[in-house]
Amino acid sequence: MVSDAYVEASLGRGGTASYNLLPPSLARFGLKRKIRLGPWFRTVFTVLHASRRLRGTWLDPFGRHPIRRVERELIAEFTALVTATSADLDLDSYDRAVELAAAPDLIRGFDHIKERNIALYRSRLADLRLREGDRAFTREASS
Predict the structure, then answer these.
(1) Which of 13, 14, 103, 134 has CA atoms 20 to 30 A from the CA of 62?
(2) Structure confidence by residue, pLDDT tens digits, 60-71
(3) What letter would DSSP give residue 57?
(4) Is the domain of 84 the same as that of 113?
């Protein structure tokens, strides 16, 4: 959190900080530009910081957002991928395992950018698994 002394040192005496944000909930309604929120919004940030213990629980206010649900699915998918890959790991499959494990690095960005990168990740993962003739993957796909 930025201290008052830091803001005063940066902006001079009497300077005020503002926050430029584009909340996803407003972006879904067509807002394309960031909104400027004044120093009063620091209270909201303090409340959000204090409520961080709620993350991942049923009380998480942001946990129901579609992108958060997809993120939780991705964690489960990656855990299954690592488990399956490590079960068949040997010297011949090491390079492929490293490529599979590095694939989640493709997932970056927020909202529509993240969704596009998730599709890219899943495509890359399918290519890697099929290229090497992954028996577990082909069994899953055929059932």
Answers:
(1) 103
(2) 887 877 888 888
(3) S
(4) yes
